[in-house]
Design brief:
Blueprint lengths: L14 H20 L6 H11 L6 H8 L3 H13 L3 E5 L7 E5 L1 H22 L4 H16 L1
Antiparallel strand pairs: 1-2
Length: 145
Amino acid sequence: MDHYTPESFTLTQSIGFAINKARNMLVAELDAALKDLGITTQQMGILMSMRYGESRTPFELSKLLSIDTGLMTRMLDKLEVKGLLDRSRSTEDRRVVNLTLTKEGKKIAEELPHIVPHVLNKRLKGFSKSEFTELRRLLNKFVDA
């Protein structure tokens, strides 16, 4: 079933427009909340992924966060210059770069769960528990399609 046709499609009524607008608003609010830590929302994703062991290499991070490898390299460069992560070549396969959080990187990553939920909860304050669950389910369905 097609939900859009050339005749019925309008930019501001499209799902893509709403998702993009929601993303932009959320990124702006998160960037403001993270300003004192000296990181951006995208950098937050890297630090949290590493903190929870979800990713250990640039390739894994690129895949998890849906960021192209070129941008990922530039972001990792910035985090390395800030002293938040270290890169090292794998001893088993020199093509593989392993990433580890520095002491300062771990410190910032540990602060994130105390900051980010406040921003998210502010956006979600008008949602019931079941609406929140359904929104998360629908977004995951959309992403997995």
